[in-house]
Hints:
The strands form two sheets. Strands 1-2-4-3-7 form a five-stranded mixed beta sheet. It has a two-stranded antiparallel sheet with strand order 5-6. The protein is α+β, with helices and mostly antiparallel strands. The chain has a single domain, classed as Cytidine Deaminase, domain 2, CATH 3.40.140.10. Helix content is 43%, strand content 23%. It is built from six helices and seven strands, in the order ββααββββαβααα.
Amino acid sequence: MASSSSGSGLTFKLHPLVIVNISDHHTRVRAQIQHSASAAPLAEGGGGRVFGCVIGVQRGRTVEIFNSFELLYDPLTHSLDRSFLEKKQELYKKVFPNFYILGWYSTGSEAQESDLQIHKAKKLIVVCAYAGDIPLDNSFLRQVSSLLRRLPAMESEKFQDDFLM
């Protein structure tokens, strides 16, 4: 589990499952776009970006992110499927009654205008909103980057076929 303190006095604990979930989500979407001619409009509209929620707990000044789940995004309306979100939230509450949605994620190299629209529309609280603006923590980002570089990359046709099925 990666742990990091911020300048605000908050301590963030990010469980590896979250990183693996987001990486898997992003990889699956990119693979589906590359192998499906019908997904070409999605690739143009959404660029293969993925969206999801992070869940966990906040105890005092410690925020622990335990898990994440995918959200359905419509690139044409730049919106998330609200009923899907509510259903997922309800299911997670049954299994993990002490976990709360702490925020949401999207993949990509830069924040998009649609990200702000989604944030405002869904009233999802970004983890950083618990204590206002938190300075960039390069040490924590290096830890996450190091973990991601250690994940194996596979490039084989058989793997792609099996993975997509």
